[in-house]
Amino acid sequence: MRRYVLTGTPGAGKTSLLHRLGELGHAVVEEAATEVIARAQAQGEDEPWTRVSFIDEIVALQRQWQQEASGAAALQVFDRSPVCTLALATYLGRPVSRTLGAELERITSEEIYQRQVLFIRNLGFCEPTSARRISYQESLVFEKVHEETYRELGYQLIDIPADAMPHRLATVLSVIAPPMS
């Protein structure tokens, strides 16, 4: 099974790329952090990321979705991974919880994700949403934290530069599903 991760700064276009891949018939898994935030905000909690349990909730949902997708297809694409959650914890100044540490150990020992990670570069702006309240300047810092975190853990970043969607999609497809020769 090949599981690829799309990562990068908020607002870089990861979810748009993921949806296009899904439309093309690829098995895709949405971003867990956005779902955790949406669920909490639907219950009236404005800033769930301030909760101590926030990081662990993301990890639990990532693990659940990864395990549910296990037999779905031989090729899967994930919008973020627990390595991204480590980057988020680092960015927020949070310690690595036991839950996050255990999940990072599991994905490494079980080789859950491909070592090649699709690093979606920022588009030169960052549109705020109810779940994304980060300035463009902050997003650049967050992008750097993601890059450093993946590299420190031995992942190879495949750069997907800012470009029109068809070009970015073609670059992603050339990595995950290269044409047969």
Structure in words:
The protein has one domain: Rossmann fold (3-Layer(aba) Sandwich), CATH 3.40.50.300. Helix content is 49%, strand content 14%. The chain has seven helices and five strands, in the order βαβααβααβαβα. 36% of the residues are buried.
List keywords for this structure.
181 residues, 7 helices, alpha/beta, 14% strand, Rossmann fold
> Tell me about the biggest sheet?
5 strands, parallel
Question: What is the CATH class?
Answer: Alpha Beta
Q: Overall mean pLDDT score?
A: 93
General shape: globular
Low-confidence stretches: none
- State the end-to-end distance: 21 Å
State the strand order across the main sheet.
Answer: 2-3-1-4-5
In the CATH hierarchy, the third-tier topology is known as Rossmann fold
Measured as a percent range, the helix fraction is 40-55%
How many domain units? 1
CATH architecture: 3-Layer(aba) Sandwich
Rg computed from alpha carbons, rounded to a whole number of angstroms: 16 Å
Structural class: alpha/beta
How many strands?
5
The succession of helices and strands, N to C, reads EHEHHEHHEHEH
Question: Could you provide a short overview of the structure?
Answer:
By secondary structure, this protein is an alpha/beta fold. Helix content is about 50%, strand content about 15%.
SSE blueprint:
Layout lengths: L1 E7 L5 H10 L3 E3 L2 H11 L11 H15 L6 E5 L2 H11 L5 H12 L6 E5 L15 H17 L3 E5 L4 H12 L5
Parallel strand pairs: 1-3, 1-4, 2-3, 4-5
Helix pairs in contact: 1-7, 2-3, 3-4, 4-5, 4-6
